[in-house]
Amino acid sequence: MNTAEFLQISSMTVPDREAIVCGETRRTFAELYDRVLRLANALQGLGVERGRRIAVMGMNSAEYVEVYYACSKLGATFVPLNYRAKTEELDYMINTAETDVLFVGERYAPLVEQLRPQLKSVRRYVGIDGAAAGMLPYAQLVAEAPNDEIFVDVDDDDANVLMYTSGTTAMPKGVVLTYLTLTSYVVNTMEPATPDKHEVTLLSVPIAHVAGLTAIISSMWGGRTLVVLPQFSEGAWLQAVEQERVTHSFIVPTMLKRVMEHQDFSKTDLSSLKLIAYGAAPMPYEVVRKAVEVFDCGLMNAYGQTESTSTLTYLGPEDHDIKGLTGEALEQKLHRLRSVGRPMDDVAVVLMNDHGEILAPGQEGEICVAGARVMKEYFKQADATSEAIVEGWLHTGDVGYMDEDNYLFITGRKKDLIIRGGENISPGEIEAVLESHPRVEEAAVIGVPDAHWGEVVKAIVVPKPGERVAPEEMREYAKARLASYKAPEYVTIAPELPRNALGKILKTELRKLYGTPSNN
């Protein structure tokens, strides 16, 4: 199924309902679909055909959403670019994708102008929110094009989206998501639009992240109003929820923490919220405990990857509900708050050892997944693809275990495993212990070289605001709660941990900053 049909169907079911809100821009489903048709016709007039790749460099906007659907109508591949990427990464992504048309937000026009001599495949540049020099103005393209219906046959296996991963360890990999993978995600997570049910989704993560993209497609299929934040800030998030009566939002843990700490949090009317989903990075236990206490809506932890077209497992609202519980029932719920929940119905999730054998509950191994939502490939990287997808199983690179009730607990990344004298150590277990200290805000663990053991554990610890901890104190705290060989040999106290735009800790940067066998 062409994902553009999701919008088309909703435009016929709820034509006069607001489909998208972004700043002063407010468009109904009928208006949005009309503009998508006009943009698709304009692009077709510029020579864009099935299989061509169309990239966008800009912050979230209503126009960004329109570009996605226009690409889908034409059978072209949508390439959302991370605007926080380094210059060399952008050069790499745009050229590797052999981008045909590049849409550019006004803020990034000078950067693209600097790159322009190196972008050999780009035939046309379009200025999204202004008429930058040498760029076609977006508004003019849409205004002057007809709204003729366009029919392009696409195969389920065709590339709908080429989404580059964050590139925390090397140059980003291009993940190819097909019409089938995205359709499978949408129909398994959202009911179609109906005139008698109206909900509102707040988009606060970048469209260049799979959680942002899938939020758009799901919302349009569900007939929800999509409220778009150009860029996240805790104040803007709170204001949008109150003013637009938001019912659903996806947010990453660092964002959720900032929202709860904002000075206007207690004064903001959040009564419209039905569900806050969080994910994309590990959720500190203390943060989710606080969220359970201060939010009256449902909470859901969603774990997945770009390569799996978003969510694989989820910890639902009922798992977050601890009201009235005591004793063993409370302890079980609190323990499960440290998990990422159970697999979704349309995917198979297992733990495998290094020999590809499926492990029993409680045994730690690599998280592997199979199903229709597994990516097609890494773009132009056959070796990386064959390494990631083995006999139909996507090897996520994440390490964890599943309990007897199918709750999945993540303990670290396979590549981050520390091997001390032949013993495998998962950083996640040590990080969880350190973060349980009452004066610790967060912690990250890496391996550092050691002449005797090969590698030993080093922890980077961030104290809570106004608090102080000492390296030896943290070593003793961990030693009392872990096997002796897992206790950190070295501890560095730091003001913060390096993160990417979505809050993931950059272990590569940690190793650059702190990868020496010392307490510095």
What are the defining features of this structure?
26% strand; GMP Synthetase, Chain A, domain 3; 17 helices; single chain; Rossmann fold; 520 residues
Mind sketching the topology for me?
Layout: H1 4-13, E1 18-22, E2 25-28, H2 29-45, E3 53-57, H3 62-74, E4 77-81, H4 87-96, E5 101-104, H5 109-115, E6 124-127, E7 136-137, H6 138-144, E8 159-164, E9 174-178, H7 179-189, E10 200-203, H8 210-222, E11 225-228, H9 234-244, E12 248-251, H10 253-261, E13 275-279, H11 285-294, E14 298-305, E15 310-315, H12 317-320, H13 327-336, E16 342-343, E17 348-352, E18 365-370, E19 377-378, H14 382-388, E20 389-390, E21 393-402, E22 408-413, E23 418-420, E24 423-425, H15 427-435, E25 440-450, E26 454-463, H16 471-479, E27 490-493, H17 507-514
Parallel strand pairs: 1-11, 3-4, 3-5, 5-6, 6-7, 10-11, 10-12, 12-13, 13-14, 26-27
Antiparallel strand pairs: 1-2, 8-9, 9-19, 14-15, 15-16, 17-18, 18-21, 20-21, 21-22, 23-24, 25-26
Helix pairs in contact: 1-2, 1-8, 2-3, 2-6, 7-8, 9-10, 10-11
